[in-house]
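Why predict the complex rather than its parts? Because the way molecules touch one another can change local conformation, and only a joint prediction can capture that. The input here totals 876 residues.
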Amino acid sequence: MIRNRDRKEAAPASTMQRIVILGGGFGGLNAAVALRRADAEVTLIDRRNFHLFQPLLYQVATGGLSPGDITAPLRGILRKQKNTKVLLGDAVDLDAVNRKVILKDGGTIPYDSLIVATGARNFYFGHDAWAADAPGLKSIEDATEMRHKILYAFEAAERESNPDKRRAWLTFVVVGGGPTGVELAGALAEIANDTLRHDFRDIDPTDARILLLDGGARLLAAFPEELSLKAEKALLKLGVRTRVHVSVTGIDAHGVDIQTANGPDRIDSGTVLWAAGVAASPWGKVLSERAGATLDRQGRVLVEPDLSIKGHPEILVVGDLSHLDGADGKPLPGVAPTAMQQGAYAARILTGAKREPFHYFDKGTLAVIGRAAGVAWFGKLRFSGFLAWLAWLFIHLMFLVGFENRVLVFLQWGFQYFTFHRGARLITGPGEGGLDKT
Amino acid sequence: MIRNRDRKEAAPASTMQRIVILGGGFGGLNAAVALRRADAEVTLIDRRNFHLFQPLLYQVATGGLSPGDITAPLRGILRKQKNTKVLLGDAVDLDAVNRKVILKDGGTIPYDSLIVATGARNFYFGHDAWAADAPGLKSIEDATEMRHKILYAFEAAERESNPDKRRAWLTFVVVGGGPTGVELAGALAEIANDTLRHDFRDIDPTDARILLLDGGARLLAAFPEELSLKAEKALLKLGVRTRVHVSVTGIDAHGVDIQTANGPDRIDSGTVLWAAGVAASPWGKVLSERAGATLDRQGRVLVEPDLSIKGHPEILVVGDLSHLDGADGKPLPGVAPTAMQQGAYAARILTGAKREPFHYFDKGTLAVIGRAAGVAWFGKLRFSGFLAWLAWLFIHLMFLVGFENRVLVFLQWGFQYFTFHRGARLITGPGEGGLDKT
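Output of the joint prediction:
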């Protein structure tokens, strides 16, 4: 058993402000970095020892990049920041009265100000059992599990003689037509059409069926309609069939039950991938129970204009866990730029800046569809195709943490672009190459 | 359930020779590649979908490289080789009379000639229970588990207030002073002295104790004595203490029990790494029971001068699983060059070459000790230091499969050399960042 040391508490009370940050994602890490010159004692707590660049998780899931390429050790990023301490720990509860965060192992971390940036998790609309057969895409482990499922399906198809079963192994269903679903479906199509094209002897990977399901009226609901249509066309060109107005009623190891305008239907598939829903992290509930926060239907915390919880100006909630309405009356989007801007804002107001309402600066939205195609939406500027893809490439490389990661990712994308090769096609994890997972 | 298709058997009998290869390591893959122009039907069976460059596994275990960097998909390597089929399968038994390999799922694969190249596995001298607390280094999963243990130990030390427990977390024991043990210990020292140097606030990673234990009289027993001494000195300079004539009598989660010339002793340590022993793969036993092969004490198959099993000229055993004495009367070393040469030899004699005795061409042996130091032994040429390190670098890059991998590894080594940075320092796997693994 490791117990958290409380030496800091035993020492003479510091007069310096103690700022505790929960979560080392885009929001929390940006807050920490923005506090680098602050006259404060900063503690960043995360369950993992690394920052994860979530927008590229789907590239790990599809064998294009390695986990190490899109992660950076939190300690490494903050090593030179002497006022900041990184703690590998699982914060599970809050004592809002005595201002202490409680860790799973019983340790407590006192704070003067608290920034909660614990983000979101996969959400199956109440059907948690679906998670076993339809992995979502929030963690590195999610991504390697998806990679396992995808690559294994082709292996299983190669060994299957029953044509129906083989067809099911070659059927890939992506549930959810947001940016993650669109990007996943596009990458899947590339794997089937290009990467694996000549790899098998008894199946033709280009026979793979890739279905993208969405419950709404169109893909990329947050984008303007013209870009949704362009995305659907680009996907169709790659061989991805989009089905809208489809709701999923069941998922098991052999396929998906759906409800369509024409009634119920069934899709036999060995590989169902979940990109449909996220819910707030359990810290929503903690803040509601311990600090009286109000939650929305997705479990996000309704925050004041300064990102604080009503009655608790010392607790700020940033990123995917927070719900703040934008100028258009809709909640700010759960994307990296929102979290980053909120993290930096939280750092500013905790170090003396006036508590003017947080204002989100929308830098635009992007999604890519396979190789060299994409849709982009920067306010009035809307474009698609190669230019959108280039913009996506540039922006993602720019924000990827670590010079080394940037160079490695850039190189691997270069290789992929010219050779269709995906270097990280490993089937790893439990079950010795997945052979027992049939 | 996936069943293996037996369509090939149902089809009209082919007149082409069917060559089945078990294992896609150095031996099996080299045999397959050497058969690329053979008038034969080649099937390569492996439980994993990738070839693993084992000599660099310790770099994955120490966060220097990602799993994807030292692996290459078998299908990708062999995609253009139209006479060769890759089968993801677990070969568990043999019908030597009817010449069939039996898979775990019940499928059978008929052969005319069989190349068994299933290699070696970790061996704990009969104490299999030690595996839980002292991972070995044979698979990618072994390497990420080791990485987990090493990085987590520093995290645990940072959180530990009890000085004895903290010291145990900062004590790293490597069991076995062969090339793998020496390389691991050297890399561990670099992590502690350089990579993590400024990462913590309450511990000083340079306080870490790294102990390298060996049961024999000196490190690198297979090398000339002068190089053993040079290796020991180079390790000492990095802060690694070598203890020879030490046998391990127990391993648990909190340390190692040892027997020395001065009697029994105990080393408290949170991180024990196993580099002491390998044994032949279970196929030694299969060949002994089904084809009458004779095994040596390590379970390796005693092969004829043409690598076949007595009475079964159609079964060849190559690589770590085979035992053939060299010109000096000692068994050929269980290293990659032996396996590669034997794989190529097997391919030659199965395609009509005369069965002249296999002759091993010793290209020399190398081991590196941390950054820019090493020992090399090329026949009469023996050297150490920077030159040996450069030779090691060059040779390993040369044999790494895949141009992309070579470039990526070269770049990452360049980064490491100039910045001491190790990019792949992820704590991944079960237990959410290892927090439950205390």
